[in-house]
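Troubleshooting entry. The earlier prediction with 2-acetamido-2-deoxy-beta-D-glucopyranose gave an output that would not parse, so I re-checked the input for stray whitespace and re-submitted. Clean input:
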Amino acid sequence: MTKDCVDHSSPPPSAKIHNQTHTETGRAKAISDGKVILVATTIFFLLCIVIAFIFSATRRTTKKPDNRGLVSKQSVKDEVLPVQLPPESIHRRSSESNRRSKSGSRRESATKTGMADMVMVNGEKGEFRLQDLMKASAEVLGNGVLGSAYKATLAGGLSVVVKRMRWMNRLGKDEFDAELRRFGKLKHCNVLTPLAYYFRKEEKLIVSAYMPKGSLSYLLHGTTDRAHTNLNWPTRLKIVKGVAQGLDFIHKEFATHDLPHGNLKSSNVLLTETYDPLLSDYAFQPLASPNNVAQAMFAYKSPEYVQYQQVSPKSDVYCLGIIILEVMTGKHPSQYQIDGQSGIDIVQWVQTSILENRALELIDPEIASNASSTDNMLRLLEIGAACVESNPDKRLPLNKAITRIEKIS
Ligand SMILES: *[C@@H]1O[C@H](CO)[C@@H](O)[C@H](O)[C@H]1NC(C)=O
């Protein structure tokens, strides 16, 4: 299913600076209030940032109960990255002391000491090295099940997201390299192609372009009004269509995988300036440590895994269904929670309401007022419900789901 893929990729670095500035001003207050430090030169320091962030984030959420809204304290912590936390949660840190003043000589010694450098897998946005990242100003974006992420703005103006990957220890260096190079070659307007990676036995980083609008999860459940604006019905439909197209591409590209995507959830769907969705964190199953893979990837929350410890490409369809129901209801699914306690059991709620002919009540009030589109909204809800069917054999196949989604206008 090829669709005309307009190039929505970010403008070149020079233009990028201007794009970033308006989001920056929104954060200016939070940033000036925050503890300002420079980013250090060692990976160890990254770890400190992450620990400090977790600590301060926990403290802040307990202090500010008004911050909860639809996104509970729990859900913010459970998100798989990249998470766009509300601006008030974002810190900027800098170090008083640049402990490695000799950083300039590190590149040369890197190979001698066995210290690896970044490996570029996609040079479209330009080349950079680990050193450039370490010198960049950084901002913690959040932390989740798979690891933590921060945003770094490089000297040239390019903004990237660096994710520290947890539980990605199955593959050795060469195999990891082969997988990441394969990801780096992917080209689809609804798929986020990584730019670079960093590999050491005890540390894996994946670098991608920064998307200023953040994730679908942030847009739907973020606590600021800014997050919700523009998520009208046409935009939501466009997002669902794009997610389905991206998933279709991933399924063709990784057709031999048990789980071609494996971690499709709203916090792994990023939005471009024009609200075109980009899927991230796909095809990680072969990289993930076998002992942790079920914790790390959302497809393992599917009914077939919970009941029979089985996953298949159909598990991705379940994940797509959750996103559709989430987009249509505006509710934060309990399925995303580790404990399954907070949020709303969106599957149960939708199935019951449809059975009882109360499907209209499911539609997010923010879009329900668009009466001319009610029928189409209900149609999309039904497709979502057919995608979360608990028996994978009765679940809508991906190609059928896509055909039906594309018919909606
Ligand atoms: C209502 O939906 C129609 C059809 O998608 C769209 O053209 C229109 O802009 C929508 N109106 C609002 C206020 O979102």
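This one parsed fine. The chain has two domains: 70-209, 216-406.
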